[in-house]
Amino acid sequence: MPIILVSGFDAWGDLTANPAWLAVEAAKPVLPAGWELCKVRLPVSWDEALDLLLEAWTEDVAAVLAFGVAPIEGIALEQIAINLTGGEDVDGKLPSNTQVIPNGPAGYWSTLPIELLNEALAHANLPVTNSAHAGTFLCNFLFYQIIHQALWVSPEIPAGFIHLSNLKGECLVDQDALTKTVEVAVEFTAMSRS
């Protein structure tokens, strides 16, 4: 039975509740017959986030979507994960300017059909853009590791990272719109594999 693995980051910084996890937790996508949804809440921790995701990554995983927040107005589909880290996590760890995977490729492209997913989200009246890359913090770290793992396990697995608004300042979305984003993205990704 195919599984779509969906993650969202937990609270960090001045976010007592992370809008990404709240959206993943609340999402109730309608999946193709036979598909299952596995949701994973990840700490904003260099040492723990990947391990928790990999624990949930069974041989039945057929697609992977990861969500995080950024200071943006809407939704950003990340196109490239870069082999570079930086930024302090919730544990105070700061691995600045190191590689995600030593001597790994400089970058990995998302294996999601970005343009078609963009169209699906826009059709649902969600303010979506394509983003060149996900920065160097844990969002990028996880994105890089997800693509690396997917290519190693099964190159046909659609996998990628989507940034959601942190809902601070001027926003074009609210928490309900972020939940809808997760639902549309999950449904679209599962359908693209069915």
UniProtKB/TrEMBL annotation:
Statement: the UniProt record of this protein carries the keyword Cytoplasm: yes
Claim: Protease is one of the keywords in the record: yes
Any GO CC annotation of this UniProt entry: cytosol
InterPro entries recorded: Peptidase_C15, Peptidase_C15-like, Peptidase_C15-like_sf
A GO biological process held by the record: proteolysis
Record keywords, A-Z: Cytoplasm, Hydrolase, Protease, Thiol protease
A molecular function (GO) term: pyroglutamyl-peptidase activity
Protein family per UniProt: Belongs to the peptidase C15 family.
Protein name in UniProt: Pyrrolidone-carboxylate peptidase
Organism: Rubritalea profundi
Organismal lineage: Bacteria, Pseudomonadati, Verrucomicrobiota, Verrucomicrobiia, Verrucomicrobiales
